[in-house]
Amino acid sequence: MPHQAVIRANDPKLRSWVPVPEGSDFPIQNLPLGVIVYNDRHRVASRIGDYVVDLLELNKSGLLGVDYPDAVFDNEFINDCIGMGREAMRDLRNRLSRLLDDRHDELRKDVDLRERVLLPINTVSMSMPVRIGNYTDFYSSKEHATNVGSMFRDPANALLPNWKHIPIGYHGRASSIVLSGTPVRRPLGQTKAADQDAPVFGPSKQLDFELEMAFVTCRSNELGEPIPIDEAEDYIFGMVVFNDWSARDMQSWEYVPLGPFLAKNFASSISAWVVNLDALQPFRVPGPEQEPKPLPYLQFKGDQNYDIALEVLIESPRFNPARICHSNFKYMYWNMVQQLSHHASNGCNIQVGDLYASGTISGPIKDSFGSMLELTWRGTEPLKMPDNTERKFINDHDTVIMRAYCQNAEVRIGFGEVKTNILPAHKA
Ligand code: CA
Questions:
Q1: What is the pTM of this model?
Q2: Residue 360 CA to ligand 1 centre (angstroms)
Q3: Are residue 360 and residue 268 in the same domain, yes or no?
Q4: Catalytic one among 3, 42, 104, 144?
Q5: Where is the domain boundary, 127, 147, 176?
Q6: pLDDT for 147-188, tens place per residue?
Q7: How many whole angstroms from 212 Cα to the centroid of ligand 1?
Q8: For residue 152, how many other CB atoms are within 10 A of its CB?
Q9: Distance CA 36, CA 359 (A)
Q10: Could you tell me the residue range of the domain that residue 87 belongs to?
């Protein structure tokens, strides 16, 4: 399996000749993939410190040592690149790591090439990295499912009987997933307050974020052919931070019997850099104990959770970013290989460039809840902001910032952030 191989690019002793600021999310041990726009052209790129690496220019130079097709980098999306497969992506990352390593000077000494390949981050703009074919959202945090079940249904029976047997999920909307930095407009929709007899149509009054991570797939299975759980990891390229915008008042009115629809499909936001699963290997940890034991097709080997610190901040025109919660991806009850293997267990075909979100990642204590719904307990316990205003949910002109990073004594692997400003609703 991939995680058992020695991945040279993960060596914590590696140092780059490219300056990497202290505390950067993007040391030489990260090397994620994204898409930059430079001179009106889209390019698949990597990132180190405050520089992006133009992989098309690097490939053309021959220094990578393998001739990848230029078209996989001269591309609006990373799909064709990651579609070369997990082994090829490991090899590409190792080769890039070697060229940036301070013990090697092939790239460093070629000043002309270096200036074409390494571009300061502030001279490029970021573009949506993945052409997302299919988007699925899971519901895999036990703490989140328990909190929501308590509020929407019954505290005594918060988890439905299927929850500990099935990684619950639903098919979301791929077309409305947007890049960090893209403003999101407050949705209009149908809601019915508990004390009203009839619904009304208008701006959502309970706009909320959901703190999630999502993985991107790099391999497809044939329609009708399941993915055994021990092979599932080969289908996962990497991960992003994911904000699954949710209109709670629309959700609570519409979700029975078929689940979320317009309360969720108006927008979700992702971070710009897709972090290779290889870079996260030093941060594998055991997950929560699963009791009852899952059915055999969901039984996995090894540690399948990851220690990824998460935080959410709110910023407004009236105050600087204020942290409102911090959680961790390690709390997930159902892990990624269980989610993916379950998804394909009926023969559903997974495709290159699909996005699979974790579901809101809530931890055990109140400060670790991953949505306003939970942090304010459906608006009954508002959060105090730095300007002494209160938030039950998200206001117009607020900006929500989510960050994710792994950190140990030797290395920090970060995801950057997903940052979204909320625009007022259109007139109903
Ligand atoms: Ca969600």
A1: 0.97
A2: 5
A3: yes
A4: 144
A5: 127
A6: 999 998 889 999 999 999 999 999 999 999 999 999 999 999
A7: 7
A8: 15
A9: 28
A10: 2-127
